[in-house]
Amino acid sequence: MIWVTGEVDGKKYKEPFSKGIMSRSLNVADIGIERAHGIASDIEAFLIENNITEISSLDLADVVLNHLKQVDPVIAGKYKNWRSLRTSKKPLIILIGGASGVGTSSMAFELANRLRLKNLISTDMIREVMRKIVSQELSPVIHKSSFDAYEAIRTPSIRIDSVIEGFISHVDVVNVGIEAIIERSVKEGISTIIEGVHVVPGFIRKDLLENNNIIMFTLIVEDEEAHKQRFYSRCRQPWVKRSLDRYMENFDTIRKTQNFLVQQAEINDTRIINNVDINETIDIMVSDILEEFGGVENVKQKS
User: Are 90 and 213 in contact (CB under 8 A)?
Assistant: First the structure.
């Protein structure tokens, strides 16, 4: 048995060396599960060959990084940044926005698995909670979908497209809940992914974005036909109760909301990703996160 020792909040701990934990951490660097298991096994073999039965987490970090540098310096750099991010005192908050049907939910789920984050929140759920709090009479737009909220505007503006005006009004209400979750995550130190159509660049308070480990992505599907096919794929699932006809009838307005999201992302310097390939999208997001918030030498093994 090989024991890994460390210290958390002034208290020492000891836990068995785990190839599973290590391989999952290695996989963040996008080396594949099989290769990650192989490298973890090589490290275990190194410790056994050198009669090491107890090692500190920091010393283990040196062993891991030295081994990875010999295998692939690029992987070593990604892994080092990822571990520094995991041991940061600040939580990581990832915001993923995009129009209906572009895949924010799927990408958030995959990213959570890759980064081993447990807290994943949909803005649709936030909206549902707010519908219980805010009556339809008080805020009719929140009781509509993001793409047809314009139908509930009592006095439309003559200076802005009605679809966009409805979308903005819809987002404004849900954004109160998004900011509350961000504030709570920062206060409690809880890493969180928030995804949904209501994550719009320029709507969240700048002080929240500037003072914390918060990164935002805007997903799009540039090709209209590919975007339509996403709805066909989504609605054919037996557990999905949403109507395909409703999405198709409102497809033009959905595309309008995407154009608005792109404009907002460009104005606010937010990363825009054409979500065509799942793996490519995840790789881009992980690379951006590691580049933005990684880079410290401290590397620890955590269960």
Answer: yes
Residue type, position 13, single letter: Y
Decide: helix, strand or coil at residue 124: helix
Q: Which two tokens stand for residue 82?
A: 């990822």
- State how far the alpha carbon of 210 is from the alpha carbons of 85, 86, 201, 205, 220, in Å: 17, 20, 13, 9, 24
Q: How many residues does the chain have?
A: 303
Pairing of strands 192-196, 213-220: unpaired
Contact 127, 133 (CB under 8 A): no
Rounded to 5 degrees, what are φ and ψ at 220?
-140, 165
Q: pLDDT of 6-63, one tens digit each?
A: 887 678 888 998 888 888 777 776 677 788 889 889 999 999 999 999 999 888 888 9
| Nearest residue to 53 (alpha-carbon basis) of 118, 127, 126, 3 | 3
Amino acid at 191: S
- Quick check: 197 and 123 in contact, CB under 8 A? yes
